[in-house]
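Please predict the structure of the following assembly.
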Amino acid sequence: MLVGHQPKPFLLSVEGLTVSFDGFKAVNDLSFYVEENEIRVIIGPNGAGKTTVLDLICGKTKATSGLIEFRGKDLTKLKENQIVKAGVGRKFQTPSIYDDLTVFENLEISYPRGRTVFGALTFTRDAAVRDRVHEVAEMIFLKDRLDMSAALLSHGQKQWLEIGMLLIQDPDLLMLDEPVAGMSVSERAKTAELLNRIIKDRSVLVIEHDMKFVEDIAHKVTVLHQGQILSEGTMEKVKSDPKVIEVYLGH
Amino acid sequence: MNDSRFATRSELIGILVLAVLLVVILPLCLDVFRLNLVAKYLTYAFVALGLVICWGYGGILSLGQGVFFGLGGYCMAMFLKLEASSVENTKIQSTPGIPDFMDWNQITALPFFWKPFHSLTFTIAAVILVPGIFALIIGAAMFKRRVGGTYFAIITQAVAAILTILIVGQQGYTGGINGMTDLRTLKGWDIRPDHAKVVLYFFEVGLLFACIFIAQFVRHSKLGRILVAMRDQEDRVRFSGYSVANFKIFAFCIAAIFAAIGGAMFALNVGFMSPSFVGIVPSIEMVIYTAVGGRLSILGAVYGTILVNFAKTSLSESFPELWLFGLGGLFIAVVLAFPNGLAGIWGDYVQPRISKLIGTRKPKSDWTDNSVADGAPAE
């Protein structure tokens, strides 16, 4: 196979991916490849299938056909929790955090140990867990709020908390769905700084509309339109692509 | 932050107060008849305790806990019935040595599934395992297919109806609508006289505290926090690497086993078991006990059960036909006005006043006590 001849194997290969909802193809014969330590941003107009692609990779939606290969494993055949174990982390578009728990407890649940029923019963909050939670809390600017109920955080802080929950999971592929949406200018700058720090040593797949933010972080951009790839390449190349200007950037 | 594996200091005080009430005050103040009534109420407290874990923490509303209460109760009743049906006790029957209702239904030999219930060890194992495995099967069938919420509640309700119909229909094997009556001895020890009632009461209270400690352990473990997390953000838990279905099955099974222990104690304390404790109405009543006590509070569930049942006994003696309306009204009032039940009223109004009176600062309560209260102003 072609993949075998590459100098470095791809971390994630998506090939011929299709999903149809009652005949409507939200993602249609999509193929793309993400390398180790690559930051890939997916952009595209509303309804282009961006979120669906993330849903397919993390197992939330089952593919109708096609292949998603991650570190030699076919993710389409795995359950959601097995996909997480394989090293894929996913942040949702609206902040999904546990309102009834404290910030500390939110982070602790994502700590990758004791994920079975018995493991969770016998889980102890030892020094390793505490240190890691404090370390991550410092990164996501929530060090002083560990004992606070997560419901009381601001929208931006909730977004950071969810990013922190993924960090503690330490995934090889981090998927972020609009991480700066709804944030204030200063929060946005802090988030960009946070993301630039956490993307080291892992691959990241980001969906984002904020073009300035995309330019700041993207190694490579994939433009989706009606479930298919419209253009792919560096930001400059994509920006000057007449097709992209017509359907997405040109308004 | 709760570093203790079982309970915070204020929870320990709460458990102690309950222990003093159940072990010292009630036995001293009540006559044996009333104490036996409390013993009957407390059998439902086991169910309510299970519902706190399953419904309060896990958000899984089961309207069929009567099924597990009944399975536990029937397992125990089968043992007691067999002991009461010795050959000399039943020599007037056409087939001596089998339970009376079998004889009335022209059954001439003990059915195969009754035979192991000659053994007390088997019976105790069955009280735990039969409902546990049944809950495991229902739970696996539902939660692995992602059936939840209202659909799950309706299905448990249907199971309760089916089991009632089955018990009533299979009169020869189950005693039918009358249930299993005239239970007499446990390994030769008569369970009917007053002193036996007192001993059984204390034994039951001991079991109840064992279950309270198990519930406390679950609640303070990471599993307890995962249940709460799942209630709000099931997908987030799933995509943090947990198999959500397994955790739901666990919560449902533990609720079923608690209910079954309650059922078994019911058969011992009350001396009979019948399908009227299995069906839809008793199952919903059990949910109401939990709601009134506070579905997020382990101790609240116990108090709620005792109080609602006490009200039921006194009101239904005077106004039998009004009681069900009263119960329905109580449930609506609790849901609308006090979603955290008695425990919520205690935590929000009574405890702060007491703390003020004593002059101590209100301890920082954790999420079980004021999670909804925190959210309430925003709604």
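Chain A has a mean pLDDT of 89. The first strand of chain A starts at residue 12 and ends at 21.
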